[in-house]
Amino acid sequence: MALTMFGELTLFLASAAAVDRPRPPAENLDGPMPTSSFPSGHIAATLCLWLAIAVIVLPRSDRWWRWLFVAAAVVLPVGVAVSRMYRGMHHPTDFMGAVMLAAAWIGLLYWVVRPNEDVRQGNQPAIESEDVDTLDDELARAGRPG
């Protein structure tokens, strides 16, 4: 997670300095900002955070709630994007630039770090959904209290 966020910040600052795009000519509700408009660092950070969490959680659980992380990786960045554009901070293309930055960074990290390699090699969730009652039954058969 630290590598994800540090890399996103570095890529955002480098690309914002290289592009140096002005903010939209609308009333800015946040006051002057220290960086340029393209890409949106808020949106890229939100995407990177929740995509990284989803990439880690999804293969490690078979419970229904794991899909909440995937939903958060979609819904939260869209909410941040709408908020930042409403506040006059970004153009719609700034959102697209943040999506490309986050996708490229998360894709590169996934390829290099291989965060789910242990799952592919047979490491499964400690308790699978259908095994929850089985564990209590095994303890009872062994004569140990659950």
Topology (SSEs and partners):
Layout: H1 2-19, H2 41-57, H3 66-86, H4 92-113, H5 117-120, H6 132-141
Shape: elongated
Order of helices and strands: HHHHHH
- Give the C-alpha Rg: 21 Å
How many separate domains?
A: 1
Helix- and strand-based class? Answer: mainly alpha
Strand count, sense and barrel status of the largest sheet are: none
The low-confidence parts are none
- pLDDT averaged residue by residue: 79
- The share of residues in helices is 55-70%
State the end-to-end distance: 36 Å
Number of DSSP E strands = 0
Please report the number of helical segments: 6
Strand percent estimate: under 5%
Characterization of this structure:
By secondary structure, the protein is mainly alpha-helical. It is built from 6 helices and no strands. The protein has helices at 2-19, 41-57, 66-86, 92-113, 117-120, 132-141. The longest helix is centred in the C-terminal third of the chain and has 22 residues, at 92-113.
What are the salient characteristics of this protein?
mainly alpha, 6 helices, 146 residues
Give me a quick take on this structure:
With 146 residues, the protein is mostly helical. It has helices at residues 2-19, 41-57, 66-86, 92-113, 117-120, 132-141. Helix 1 (2-19) packs antiparallel against helix 2, helix 2 (41-57) runs antiparallel to helix 3 and helix 2 (41-57) runs parallel beside helix 4 (92-113).
